[in-house]
Amino acid sequence: MTKKVGSDIEIAQAAQMQHIATIAKRLNISEDDLELYGKYKAKLPLSLINPNNIEKNNLVLVTALTPTPAGEGKTTTSIGLTEGLNKIGKKTTVVLREPSLGPVFGIKGGAAGGGYAQVVPMEDINLHFTGDFSAIEKANNLLSALIDNNIQSKTKSLGIDPRTIGWKRVMDMNDRALRDIVIGLGGTGNGIPREDGFNITPASEVMAILCMAENFEDLKERLGNIYIGLTFDKKPIYARDLKAENAMAILLKDAIKPNLVQTLEGNPAIIHGGPFANIAQGTNTILATKMGLSLSDYVVTEAGFGADLGAEKFLNIKCVSGGLKPKATVLVATIRALRHHGGAVKEEYNTASPERVSKGLENLDKHIENMQKFGLNPVVAINAFPTDTAEEVELIQKRCADKGVKAIVARGWADGGEGMTDLANAVVEIVEGGNNEFKPLYDWNKSVTEKIETIAKEIYGANGVEYSKKALTDLKKIEDLGIGHLPICMAKTQKSFSDNDKLVGRPTDFNVNVREFEFAAGAGFIIPILGVMMRMPGLPATPASEGMTIDNSGKISGLS
Q1: Residues 352, 391: one domain?
Q2: In this predicted model, what pLDDT tens digit does every residue of 155-189 receive, in sequence order?
Q3: Would residue 201 show up in a list of annotated catalytic residues for this protein?
Q4: Could you say which of 68, 76, 92, 421 is catalytic?
Q5: Residue 306 CA to its chain's centroid (Å)
């Protein structure tokens, strides 16, 4: 039976949350092991990670077709699937990323699920939570301060050429005015004038490092490997040369620990890390995923944006680095997104159109084929909306059946776990059937250009790859630094398989263009930038913040 519908925040605020110690007991965690942040949040010590459980338990990845700007509900589906799996008797934890304040106050809203498939306390999770993002900002900006202090120093200078510094400051807000700035003005006491800028916190390499680290020692080593720039005599300088890694790690001593909260139905949820998927790796921390696998039989996790971004990076970077093997994947599709890929404009997304859905299925086809290239036959979850029609649903299910894939209507938003048991049973059938055998798409030891070409041709469907003069110069620098063996983390629009966001559906006969390269030597990947990618977004004309209020009792409204 459909539950009473309200806004996401109204549903979350009406929930009767359980003390976090009660949730922890479901995972056999004693209250003494919890680091409590009030009654409903806690950090988990890394000592709870049990390597013996990680491979034998079941990792399920939730990804999606190419989304519309509003997103297609991967987080909602992940949470709903977790509720459904628990309802059919599978001990399951959902493991998610932390929301960024940029989207919360910008256009997309929060990332705590929706309707009756949410994690709570919703307001805390979408706002400052346990302070992890703040700690990442501080560690990032400490390194910035140390760099400028060293340039200013007359006695301990490393001879850093300010023109070569690629490291930027960060803040967790959409503030386009800070993309490109000049610092050090106002006289000799204020430092050396140079160009600088801000990225949004999810784009910080410190965020990426936190998400890739295996333990505290690994965290420190990765922080020390952050590339800063060159000296005047062309020698590379790393954070370790500034003796920065220990101080940065100290600021992250609590942030490295995963956060435990709960779903609306009282099931465990671990939320940790938050890199974007179009400019970073788009998945939660390796530590959080391994924590979930240590404590429960099933772990449901999601990767950002479409499967060509988050899932590709999850599988080729995170799984290979962390030794993880997903046993099932879920591809989230919405009928409104299929209408979009079939030619509907925004005002027509909620207008029934079997013709547009049929044309838009080309996009879903490609994502299914891509997952199968990794040895993973997916289940398609049709995230239900009130404007869906039976004819449109039938079109999807028939197309998927022709590809040997089940497509199941997911009603987690409206019905919570009750609306997700069919999807849960389909996932269990895939896992217990044992027919999926994950394999990465490429060998890290291939050349940088071979790895990029593999992703471009196999995942995007491109004819080939073109490189600008700057990209070729950057590529030589990558080889000179000896990091060509690292995996590839593409920075690309989330709106298309191509690097042209206007090419929806399943584009053909195109090349992708690498404009330049960045690299995250500490996090451990190379970043080809396809087109113009903003690492500091701007706010829309009408930010979501304008619709938010807080009353005299501290009750928040308008947060989604």
Answers
A1: yes
A2: 999 999 999 999 999 999 999 999 999 999 999 99
A3: no
A4: 76
A5: 11
